[in-house]
């Protein structure tokens, strides 16, 4: 047994390492579902802005079959707490800031647990001191009550974990 381990060790040192293909997930504007992209090196990603205060859509696109007044009321409440419509007017997005990386990870876990229970999943970008959350309904496309309800859950989770204002979060130096 000892001899086999030594032989494997020598073999590993003499062979040159080949790059291991990695798969990265991305979303495009025309297809918000994540699509795998194969790469042999680590990707350097910059976040995709899903909404900006200067480029707000003129209309909200609700999911088919939704009670638009109820969803619009929930959306107005979310907007007062910093949520914005995405570029297409079919979802809501917000960035949450935390003083510690593990708090940001805990926040993602809170979202993941509830979204798994409700079978409705967001697009989440985790950074060193912040988390971007984007809720939209894919089938039927548009903004739905599920998006509003789970965005409110994010607000409650962020309060529980200790989200801070922009600029007060942990920075990577």
From TrEMBL:
<dbReference type="InterPro" id="IPR001533">
    <property type="entry name" value="Pterin_deHydtase"/>
</dbReference>
<dbReference type="Pfam" id="PF01329">
    <property type="entry name" value="Pterin_4a"/>
</dbReference>
<keyword id="KW-0456">Lyase</keyword>
<dbReference type="GO" id="GO:0006729">
    <property type="term" value="P:tetrahydrobiopterin biosynthetic process"/>
</dbReference>
<dbReference type="InterPro" id="IPR036428">
    <property type="entry name" value="PCD_sf"/>
</dbReference>
<dbReference type="GO" id="GO:0008124">
    <property type="term" value="F:4-alpha-hydroxytetrahydrobiopterin dehydratase activity"/>
</dbReference>
<protein>
    <recommendedName>
        <fullName>4a-hydroxytetrahydrobiopterin dehydratase</fullName>
        <ecNumber>4.2.1.96</ecNumber>
    </recommendedName>
</protein>
<comment type="similarity">
    <text>Belongs to the pterin-4-alpha-carbinolamine dehydratase family.</text>
</comment>
């Amino acid at each position: 047994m000892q001899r086999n381990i030594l032989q494997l060790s020598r073999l590993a040192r003499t062979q040159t390492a080949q790059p291991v293909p990695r798969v990265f997930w991305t979303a495009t504007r025309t297809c918000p579902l994540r699509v795998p992209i194969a790469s042999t090196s680590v990707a350097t990603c910059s976040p995709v802005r899903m909404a900006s205060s200067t480029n707000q859509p003129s209309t909200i696109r609700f999911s088919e079959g939704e009670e638009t007044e109820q969803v619009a009321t929930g959306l107005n409440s979310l907007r007062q707490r910093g949520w914005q419509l995405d570029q297409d007017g079919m979802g809501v997005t917000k960035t949450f800031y935390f003083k510690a990386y593990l708090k940001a990870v805990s926040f993602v876990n809170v979202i993941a647990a509830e979204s798994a229970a409700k079978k409705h999943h967001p697009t989440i970008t985790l950074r060193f001191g912040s988390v971007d959350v984007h809720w939209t309904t894919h089938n039927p496309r548009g903004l739905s009550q599920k998006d509003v309800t789970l965005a409110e859950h994010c607000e409650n989770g962020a309060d529980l974990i200790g989200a801070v204002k922009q600029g007060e979060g942990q920075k990577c130096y």
